[in-house]
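Researcher: Structure prediction, please.
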Amino acid sequence: MVDVVLSPAEQAAKESLDRICACIDQGKSFLLEAGAGAGKTESLIRTLGYLIKKHGTVLLRQNQQVACITYTNVAVEEIRNRTDRHPAVHSSTIHAFCWSLIKNFQPSLRHELPSLNKWSQRLEESGGIGIRTVSYESGYRSVEEDNVSLHHNDVLALTVELMKQAKFRTIFTSRYPILLIDEYQDTDRLIAEALKTRFLDTGEGPLIGFFGDHWQKIYGAGCGKVEHSSLDVINQGANFRSVPVIVNCLNRMRPELPQQVKDPNAEGFVAVYHTNDWTGTRRTGPHWKGDLPTDVAHRYLEALREQLGTEGWDFAPDKTKVLMLTHRVLAMEQGYSNLAQVFPNNDTYIRKEDPHIAFFVDTLEPVCVAYQKKCFGEMFAALGGKTPAIQSPTDKANWARDMDALLELRSSDTIGAVLDHLRRTKRPHLPEAVERRERDLEQAEQPPSTEESSSITRLRTLRDISYQEVIALTRFIDGHTPFSTKHGVKGVEFENVLVVVGRGWNQYDFNWFLECAGTPDKIPPNRRDAFERNRNLFYVTTSRPMKRLAILFTQELTTKAMTTLVNWFGDTIIHSLQINN
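Model: Predicted structure follows.
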């Protein structure tokens, strides 16, 4: 029998999996810390395979399942497919999982709901909760005659409240004696605390396995690093994604979690470019200080793309991703610069925190695209699965008439024109939050007073922008362009990555981060969260490439920041990029 020779990365992953299986055998909860490219998903799937093989029959006999929680429907479907949809595994998103746990506790839900944020006044205006059924459908809050519908955040908050009840915890554990959490660092803080307080602290409840990486926590609501004395922490020191020259840089960046590569002989490319030698006037302001003017930054980006192209880079979207950590340049490149200027906080529209943007990107655009393709089932699915009453040829003709008019406005008119059309036709209906803001604008003074609220002023400006910018923003958010930003890239990989680092994010200053990274023990406690936020985003973006990595700083870098870059990347691959003034 010939022994199978494992690569260094495969050996590291095997050792981690062996430790996970040992924890399961001992009934001990654990945490797998798996850095970028470490094969975390593969370890999760193999863990599920081990559980199915060892406990699947008993679980099914006892009407129990292993709960595997993740954060996107795509990931849920991957887990289901790779476990052959085994009935002993329940895979779902955190919101769907929590709702499955709490939905039958209607008396408790009616008791707790009025105390939640944004519900007290809403219910009071509707005569109280009464005996209304608490439901969770579209994720938008609404109160109807016999039903109230929850927001996504309400489901998590109610789960935390119900976990205080011993009966609820008993039912939880009896249904799911094993709970695996994918991307643990993105778990809602209150949910993570409840799991620690109600289960890990007491030694009761399910065996819990956390899979993730706290250095890849880049979303604000996530809990980040999870620590508990009862958890066996397992570091997975593998990197199956990147070539050695990139992994070596990541290891110098993160020496406490060194990674082994799949192919020690694979060749690749890493280079860092700065703009410190530009002699013009840089931008000022609290979030822009030290950055290049937008047009100059664009010229630097084009110059570097041209240079890298001559060195063998293929900038086709399926080969290279340009990760933009500077929003004004990104918005200009993508065609939604006017829309970007409406919002003082970039996350408001990129993360769809504004209700208008959320409706456009998550509902209206999918509806329009599906209608154009004549995929009517997909169209109504985008409406939340609520198929409208189409009971006659007249109903069908009216829908077609209004949708055709919508498509025309979408391609040639303003956001305001599209909204006015939807308010008239109600095909599709506007969410309550959007309709309420539109009514507030109607009732505002005309012409606007000097005391008008900033939200109303933003809405006025938003309505005057071409709807084509919404289409461009949607394409960007959904990943249909060569460009991206911090959202949507975690967990994915590209052959080549060009990271453009600048200012414009109210929560990020990468020069400051690089200065602090040289002496992390001197970071003040009140700035630790800010440092980790910058560190995590820099790590996530620079760890995406398989073969080639280039980093362009449009922000001016201090000597101290440059020293950190030299320590991580080496001085021979750090270059001053030049353009013609």
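Model: The domain at 268-346+487-576 is CATH 3.40.50 (Rossmann fold).
Researcher: Thanks, that helps.
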